[in-house]
Amino acid sequence: MHLQRFELHAEGVVDLAQVAVLFPTVVFDWLDAPAIEAISDEAWRDDELDFWAFDRALDAICDRGQAVQVTVTAERADAMAREVLTRGQRLVQRRNSESETGWFDRVLAEHRALHDLDKPLVRADLDHALDAWQWCLRLEAGASAAVQLATLLHDIERLRSEPDRRIEHHAPSYQAFKDAHALAGARIAAAVLERAGVPTEIGATAAGLIAVHERSGGDRALRVVNDADALSFFSLNSPGYVAYFGREQTAKKVAYTLARMSPAACAQLSGLRLPPVVRELLAHHGYRA
Length: 289
Hints:
CATH class of the largest domain: Mainly Alpha
Distance between the termini: 30 Å
CATH superfamily of the largest domain: Hypothetical protein af1432
Shape: globular
Low-confidence stretches: none
CATH topology of the largest domain: Hypothetical protein af1432
Strand order of the largest sheet: 2-1-4-3
Largest sheet: 4 strands, parallel
Number of helices: 14
Number of strands: 4
Helix content: 55-70%
Structural class: mainly alpha
């Protein structure tokens, strides 16, 4: 189930060269004829867009092996293609030489098997894990296997503590809650990596990154993990977060997440399709989105 083809239906000359660089495994087609199943730019930008329904429709399109189709003006083509593909990049699953291994395949399979997709929160966690992994490779094309694994598995602890309901907003100390989540996740991830046959040193490095991933700073490897996690929150998870928690808790989450992000990651915010509440909260912090 991979997103392999993207069809853009627009009148006028369209240049998708820059988007193609961001998504090198996707085949792009431009057609000036209308498409029946395409999402229009108007619907995509509607403040009432149902992001969850869009994600599930994208799953179905990829399951059928069809192309993702959008209808847009030539002037908006680059922006819409970038936004839609970013929203769906969990289905692209690009890799580099570090993750083109049999044991990485086994990690992906075992990780997927841990998720009961009949539970909406668990499905959201799987989407986030895959999306964060793809952000990792967008931010650093040569990311090591350990960094990729840490990004993929960073929230694996939530499968035990929050599969049916979220509890983070009840924590007396949000940072203490997140630190405990990271440490427990590192232990769970270490066991998964060992079962999958990941080389010992790589597995230990990945688990070590997971153990501290809720803290800002650190070396470049940790910054990539944190930036990928944070960008995935904004680009993929934030609509669901607003719907589940409401504005007040979302405001706290946005502030917490921004504090973990590097300037380079923050620069990506302006290219994301975000719900109105999150756009307003980012504007409050001085970011245009």
